[in-house]
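Hi there,

I know you've been waiting on this one. I reran it after we fixed the sequence typo, so this is the corrected version. Both the input and the resulting structure follow.
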Amino acid sequence: MTGEDREVSSSGSTAGTDGDAADAARIPLAVAPPRGPSARRAVALLALVTAAALIPSFGAPATLHGTGEAAAPGAGGIGLMRAVLFAALCIPAGEFFVARLVRRVPGAPVADLPRSLAPHAAGAGFVAALVLASVVATGNLVPHRLSEIDPGGLYRTRDGALALLEVNGFLAAGLCALSRRPACRMWPPAAVAVAEALRAHPATEHSPALGSALTLVHLVCASLWAGGLLHVLRTVRHWRTDPRAGGALLGLYARGAAVLLALITATGLWSSLRRMPAHTVLDQLTTTAYGRTLLAKVLLVAVVALFALIARIRLRRAADPLAACAPARAEVALLGLVVAASGLLTALPLPIRWS
């Protein structure tokens, strides 16, 4: 505040003129609000995003160390692209899920919703799927020159056809994101999820149909959980002038998330036991790269569930239901790390199935 401003402020406190009072009233508006908490949140978010990117990029050597296993070429990059692909599925799934919940909130401003992130997610997913398809087109090797990529070869293999389906699915998702019909937007991501579930379980695997079904349910529920929470928080912030509607939306999401977490846990446990029989799980969780990454993912999900429980308690007991947003923001940030760990998991060699 300058010396002239101080003179105006002091004159406003001694003289009762209207002009001085108006000047004094305007002075606090020129003072910038403190930026400490928002700056800390921005730094924390940047750190989490960086960690999410580094987990699949540099996590493969760490998890493989001392196991005697060999990673596929470019495992870190493939894990990163797979994590981006998973995140791109979460965005439209979450927006579709929350759009259904909003209709059940009494008096909610249904027409006043945050801008959709689905077009941006489709673009990121398209790039990730295209990179992964180029790897498949070179015989699952990382291409160093465009001449090494054989696009026509994608049509001759099952993995190639599924990679093409994912590329086209995200391309269609970008076009459908411009549609005003939520159901129309979901068909392309659903096709990508089916392709990803089939890719994870080749025909040579034991009971591939069962494995693909488990993976599909797991992937869909995880996308609804992570993407739904992100969009709920964006919607509640957009509705900050109507905290009652925001609290009601959080409550509806919390009930649905409990069911989704139960399905994620059941399908994840079943899938793990199919790849690591019960009597070998404890050994393989520490002696294989797949097991170590799976253990890290399970621990992250446990912490996420703890934050979800805290948010649910605050939602029920706090005078202001929006107090649940703080643990919910921590929950969605940790879910980003879970997605990154899931991407890394797909790039690592499968565990040995001991008899």
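Quick highlight: The radius of gyration is 25 Å.

Best,
R. S.
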